[in-house]
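Hi everyone, sorry if this is the wrong subforum. Our group has a chain we'd like a structural model of before ordering constructs, and none of us has done structure prediction before. Sequence below.
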Amino acid sequence: MVITPQEFISTLPLLIVGLTTIIVMLSIAWRRDHLTSVILTIFGFCLSLLSLFFISNDFPKSVTALIRVDNYAVFYSTLVLISGIATSIFAFHWLEEFQDNKEEFYLLLTISVTGGILLSMADHMASMFIGIELVSLPLFGLVSYTVEHQHSIGAGIQYMLLSAVSSSFLLFGIALLYAESGNMSFSAVGSSFSDNHMHAPLILIGLGMLIVCFGFKLSLFPFQLWTPDVYQNAPAPVCAFLASASKISIFAVLMRIFIETSIGRNNAVLSLITVMAVASIFFGNLMAITQKNVKRLLSYSSISHMGYLLITLVALRIDPIRSQMTVAIYLASYLLASLGTFGIISIISSPCCSNDQGNFNIFRGLFWHKPVLAIVLTVMMLSLAGIPITLGFIGKFYVIFSAINAELWWLTGAIIVGSAIALFYYLHFITSLYSHDTKHTDNFFRKEQAKCSTIVSVVCAIIVILIGIWPQPLITIASTVLVNF
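Answer:
Right subforum, don't worry. Here is the predicted structure as tokens:
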């Protein structure tokens, strides 16, 4: 096997982030310095992001059987890197008050970003599994990074155990698919599935096991039990990464599998996906209504958002181009809203405070103390709710349009009803920001404000509004980031 210079250049984003991981590790071994670690991490991510523009010609390109570099991979790699950069900035200010070792946070983060990029480029079951594990394993440490807090340790153990179980399902499912097809490449697996062959027992069981794994990673009903506890007890910057890059990269590879293997033609799979989508939408939104903790609210909200995205997989058989565009637009809006929201939570919360869970009382009256943070948080919540003039509205519009175009009337109704329910709890939280009950707010602000984190959150809010008003640039980009099928 010979890798040409062009193929080597195509993998530069992945190689640069991998090299960044090694450099950060060596810098920690040589001399511990928090500022040095975060600068090296952000510089590596920015360099990887820059390299994406130099490989944008001569697509698509397969680099061995494991990796395929195309516009689709470049787009989702970009989203993962943006999430990594923002998370590094949020973490720097959040960790300033952390009394234990800070530098390993960035080492774990770079490993997880490497896995996210690999997932965006994966074209083989083996690279998909490696990518999922590279994303998931560092999150065990990141979720429980504040080891002095019992709840944080408990969340990390819970995530680790359930993630290990889901990975075992994934491996067994891959083995069953390989036993039937004799190949683990996405396209080869798809070409070996004839219409009759798709209903073979081993195929159905293997696909079911893959769906179990993806259901856990994406917090889909009924595999979502870990989500609220992990979101509540994990550090706020980790939640930003977990809610954005982790789910974006995993959904990207799931979409590629559906397209290249044609499993979306299987009625049994579509029926299962449909039930999971509807259940996720209603369970997530109904449970979010009762929450008094913003991080738990966002965790249940994420369940419903992944349910909306599942509908695009059902519509994929009717209109694959429109469905892919919908996923790209929706995930871009979800990325910005998640980063902006958890960025504000990171600014307000502190690792030294045992109550880093984001209780509503912390945010009550925020506008009267920090109006910029309150306004940004308002914009993000409105975007998540899908209110017009925000990017979230454009994403929700495309999901509904895809469902209508595929004549999925019941699913269209589920989207509308779910969005109406979501509007209630988003507005309920927004009203608490402007309440005059301000007795709790001052206790949760540090003397030195995280200016860089504030800037990142404000930029996210501005982009959400600008693209919400003029979405054509994002729509144009989304129309070019399609998997060739």
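For your construct planning: The beta strands are 61-63, 67-69. The longest strand covers residues 61-63.
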